[in-house]
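Write out the 3D structure for:
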Amino acid sequence: MGVLVEESGSGRIEHAVDMILFGVVSPALTYWGWTVVARARQAERLLAAIDVASPDAFIRLDPEGRIGFWSRQAKVLLGYSARQANGRTLGELLGPQGEAVWLRLRDMMRASGLVRGQQALFHTRSGLEAPVELCASPVRDGVGRSGGMLVVVRAVRRRGERKETIDDLRQRLTENVQQLARANAERERAESMRYELVSFASHEIRGPLGHIRAATELMYSGCRENSPTCQRMFGLINRQLRHVDELVRSVLSAANIEAGKLVLHREPMSVMAAMQEAVQAMKAVRECRPVRLAVSADLPPADADREQVVAVLRNLLGNADKYTPPGTEIVLAAEESTGFLTVRVRDHGPGLPHVSPERIFDKCYRGPAARGVEGYGLGLYICRQAVAAHGGQIWAENHPRGGAVFSFTLPIAQ
């Protein structure tokens, strides 16, 4: 004889949430995601094929002169691997000659938009001289803004060795630049589609989330039982909705940063007030560790975008809360230094992983201690970009008495 069990109100609500999130949103994301990934992989394959087949070296520099792409032939020619080169300037990697070349290429690019046939002398990692010929073209990002330049480097043979004609060199350089321009255009289209996907998904997800939250609160207010179990289930639903909303915000922030759409609304602001707002926002999402504020009463205001500063603090506090053991506190402090305010977030967790401290701020980086911990590796990346947009710095270090300390600076309002 079967027994019919009536599904509880909280169970029906959870089932409705699952049906909306995974029955409506997931198919749309899957369709658009496949398209973006396919285009991005096509561009990557084209660039990889050019890198393997070409005897020339390719170096991509961002608007500040930092290396973003370092080809295999660049390693052969100059002795540095892509891991050693990426993220550094030519001056940091190759010394004064590299800095002089970057400044010359930058000025010529601004003047004419294209650089050809420039002679230079680099020193390899082993100390040998490497005479080269340079050709450079501008690179645009997904929204048409300047994304730096692509430099083609050809080794010049020394006197007494076989020489190729200038026409041959120019023709080969032109062909390589054209191939790379096509690959870059394909990559730009993929980036543009990715941004459109993120914007579409954010809008389509946050709308239903708002309706679900409103319906949940209405059902809770009209719940006749109002039992501890009912309260606990409604609280769980609300926390999960806030968690999904926070994830959508993080993905959209990362997309805006990469598309060059991060706009700051700077004004004199209280860092103490931003700290308190960030702590309250985190407590609304999760049951977090206690946070102790250590801020002097005469701390001057910062010249910053309040919303962005609160977002940075929320990300750092959320990161600290994930790794701080129960029963220990998170310390949030701020102090004045020369022309800047330094904000610190200290936890009592396992400390930083055994990697370069800069790497933990890379997009989607997840250290060994992150296994089993919720997160997508976007928070620290967003923090770094937002702080840099203010002209500040962000870094992480281990505390002598255990745990990690994340610090960042903001300019003081004049």
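The first strand starts at residue 57 and ends at 61.
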